[in-house]
Amino acid sequence: MSPRTSKQFDRIRQEKKELIMETALELFAENGYHATSISQIAKKAGISKGLTYNYFESKKEILDKLITHGFDSIFESFDLNHDSVLTEEEFIHFIRENFRLLRENLKHWKLFFSLLLQPSVSDNFSKDYAEKGAPMFQMLFSFLKSQGSIDPEGDLMVLSAMLEGAFLYLIVAPEVFPMKIMEEKVINSISRLISTENNSTSKL
Amino acid sequence: MSPRTSKQFDRIRQEKKELIMETALELFAENGYHATSISQIAKKAGISKGLTYNYFESKKEILDKLITHGFDSIFESFDLNHDSVLTEEEFIHFIRENFRLLRENLKHWKLFFSLLLQPSVSDNFSKDYAEKGAPMFQMLFSFLKSQGSIDPEGDLMVLSAMLEGAFLYLIVAPEVFPMKIMEEKVINSISRLISTENNSTSKL
Amino acid sequence: MSPRTSKQFDRIRQEKKELIMETALELFAENGYHATSISQIAKKAGISKGLTYNYFESKKEILDKLITHGFDSIFESFDLNHDSVLTEEEFIHFIRENFRLLRENLKHWKLFFSLLLQPSVSDNFSKDYAEKGAPMFQMLFSFLKSQGSIDPEGDLMVLSAMLEGAFLYLIVAPEVFPMKIMEEKVINSISRLISTENNSTSKL
Amino acid sequence: MSPRTSKQFDRIRQEKKELIMETALELFAENGYHATSISQIAKKAGISKGLTYNYFESKKEILDKLITHGFDSIFESFDLNHDSVLTEEEFIHFIRENFRLLRENLKHWKLFFSLLLQPSVSDNFSKDYAEKGAPMFQMLFSFLKSQGSIDPEGDLMVLSAMLEGAFLYLIVAPEVFPMKIMEEKVINSISRLISTENNSTSKL
DNA sequence: GATGAATGAGTATTCATTCAT
DNA sequence: CATGAATGAATACTCATTCAT
Q: For C143-147, which contacts have Cβ atoms below 8 Å and span 24 or more sequence positions?
């Protein structure tokens, strides 16, 4: 007879919010933000349309929260702020971490990639993305130099492209590009990719 | 005031059709298919909404025609069907051709990438894309083998990823990744990327 | 920790009810009935939405109760049912009472006026309003006759209009029409407004 | 077979626009802005909901256009900018004009009055209303002085109230307050209302 | 008595598509 | 061939009301 405690309410709110976000993520990633309607989200989540607005101000807010949440769970899970030079081992571990995070956040990544191609959807997604990605570039760059690259800028471009491309393939066609194999091949290629005195002259 | 010949009419039809498609491509690529309305297309093209339906059955058909047309203008411009083995020089030329085509069809590529991430939009876009891309994979593969790769499958994965990633960067952030530099770096990396007896053991 | 007596409960109920009504009056008067939501009322009153329905059947009932209550507190505070003829002094007192009541019930009056213009909102508000106002008309009429008006019907119209208009101005733009000054001016005009043998001929 | 001329389109647009505005005015005036839905307007006008948005950006814009249009057709129909002093005859004519305009724009006036009580609905309606009304106040004031009022400010208040009140009654209960009679009575009262040396001392 | 999660009907608005001219 | 008025279904969002606790 007594009303629910605020703790109970908090739990309900938390659970529902997550349910909505997960459902929305699934649909946004699969069909795109614009092609996904609140009705679809509500239906799939098994709730009423109205309830969605009990938890989120707007469809846009769901997207924004998904982005923030996605960034948090992906980028902030490893500390990229230490300046120390990575050993080969540490670097490999770092790359493997990236693959692991991709594996665990496939939907988020799919959403991110689609937003990259239409940054207008979420106003400063690109900026955030660039910011979040910057430390990674920095890390790749430092590592390349520490490994004796004679053209770290160029190597960085290629290495970044390779990683980004690998990610894209894994998201778009995971059945054609098995995650684990791709991971090994990429890791295996890194050393070869670095331009050193020895290999830089060997023009293709 | 002699009546226009049917030839003239045909030309007018053809021009209008192209005008609509170009305009639609621009808007689809920039804002996405769903976020672009027929009104916007018509307005930007300087024609009436109704006229659009004189040339296309539906908004979807514009997209489909764009895809087909895009594939045609991109993939079929070089003949990928010859089985002969490519020399290094021919191969480099082939890669450069790809960059050139990207440069000339940036909008198409942007559209393609966004469709890759939302294949539902155009029902069998992914299939077409895979089909059109297959000969290229084949060519990369043959080339890798001809160059003495001891793991052509693995090298193919990495090489594909690198190219796809380069393309994505060039589309999404051309100001950060200058086209020409990227092209040189990629080409320069190919030889290093191939796993041969000499370099395969060098574990990172 | 003895259980509250039913008397205490009643008092709590009464207080909550009044709290809700006051809050609703404020919002209805300021923003209109339709533009005011139950959520806003509850929030402003510091209670839950649900509780509102513990005291009122519906939003409409709050309005209706406000109207009834408003009529009660305004019209029934002075006894209009005595038939005796008013002296000048008594009449002036009566008019001053009206101004006083307006001052003390500005929100109610604002609400009343807006309902007058949209009687559909509360079904028979107009009827009630006319009924409640009737004795006042009667009183004005009797007074005008007792003062020697040779056209009491006409004078009544004008006097009513002047009073209603004064009230409207005081509600809508109290800063431009200071209450006390308006009151004096209106009272001062009443005698001049009555058409007597002496002034009726003076055509404007 | 040939397309409609732009003249034909213009006429259609003009007519439909007026139809929508008239219908909206009717409903806004009767039921209020918030209580009137676009569906109702469309239904009553015999058109589809969508068409409304072919002619107006939003529901709010319909209201704003109605206000502007209403002001235009009411206030600007007589020139209030001449500074010359009005004779009695001219003044009476001016007042009669006001009643005529009220008669011809009853719905507009009803809408205006309801907006007066909820200025939030249309952001700066009150300001416009005050501005448009200012010249009329000025005219009343000048006239009162020219007629020898010894308290023109006070008389102005009362006269304004009388007019505004008369208007309100005519809008709200025209069957109880017949327009023509009210008009005569008001006009007849004006001279008596002016406080002169002769009548100012006669305290009620 | 009190809470706020949940619902569903309703609202303003958009947009692909049709069609008379 | 060309126009844009017209439609109707769909969309994001609101809100009075219910109800389990």
A: C143/C85, C143/C86, C143/C91, C144/C194, C146/C85, C146/C86, C147/C88, C147/C191, C147/C194, C147/C196
Whether residues B188 and A32 touch (CB distance < 8 A) is answered with no
Q: How far, in Å, are C33, C117, D36 from residue C121 at the CA level?
A: 8, 9, 12
Q: What global pTM score does this model have?
A: 0.92
Cβ contact D67:D122 at 8 Å: yes
| H helix runs in chain C, sequence order | 6-31, 38-45, 49-55, 59-75, 88-104, 106-116, 125-146, 152-172, 179-193
The answer to whether chain B touches chain C by having 3 or more C-beta pairs less than 8 angstroms apart is: no
- What's the pLDDT at A80? 60
User: What's the pLDDT at D202?
Assistant: 46
Alpha carbon distance C39, C23 (integer Å): 12
- Domain ranges within chain D, ordered by starting residue: 1-57, 63-202
Pick from B14, B189, B56, C11: nearest CA to A157? B189
Can you tell me the distance from the alpha carbon of B168 to that of B158, in angstroms, rounded to the nearest whole number? 15
Distance CA A76 to C1' E5 in A: 33
Which helix (H) or strand (E) segment is B169 a member of?
helix B152-172
Residue A145 corresponds to which tokens in the numbers above? 């130099």
Say what the pLDDT of residue C79 is: 64
Instruction: List CB contacts of A155: < 8 A, sequence separation 6 or more.
Output: A144, A149, A193, A194, A195, B185, B189
> Mind listing the pLDDT tens digit for each residue in C81-105?
666 778 889 999 999 999 999 999 9
A1-57: CATH class: mainly alpha
Tens digits of per-residue pLDDT, C109-149?
A: 999 999 999 999 998 899 999 888 888 888 899 999 999 99
φ, ψ (nearest 5 deg) of residue A182: -55, -45
Tokens, residue A151: 């053209």
Query: Which of A32, A117, A189 shows the shortest C-beta gap to B34?
Result: A32
CB-nearest to B185 from A158, A181, A182 is A158
Contacts C163 to D, Cβ<8 Å: 161, 165
Alpha-carbon span C108 to C102, nearest angstrom: 8
State how far Cα C203 lies from the chain centre: 35
pLDDT band at D75 (very low <50, low <70, confident <90, very high): confident
Is the C-beta atom of B39 closer than 7 angstroms to strand F?
Answer: no
CB contact under 8 A, D192 and C202: yes
**Strand E contact at CB of residue C16, distance < 7 A:** yes
Tens digits of per-residue pLDDT, A14-58?
999 999 999 999 999 999 999 999 999 999 999 999 999 999 999
Inter-chain touch D192–C188, beta carbons under 8 Å:
no
* Nearest chain C residue to D190, by CA: C204
Record: contact D30-C177, CB cut-off 8 A: no
Could you tell me the CA-to-CA distances from B65 to A195, B60, B73, B124 in Å, in that order? 44, 9, 12, 13
Nucleotides of strand E within 7 Å of the protein's CB atoms: 1-21
Element (DSSP H or E) covering residue A40 = helix A38-45
For residue D22, the model assigns a pLDDT of: 98
Contact between B21 and B52 under an 8 Å Cβ cutoff? The reply is: no
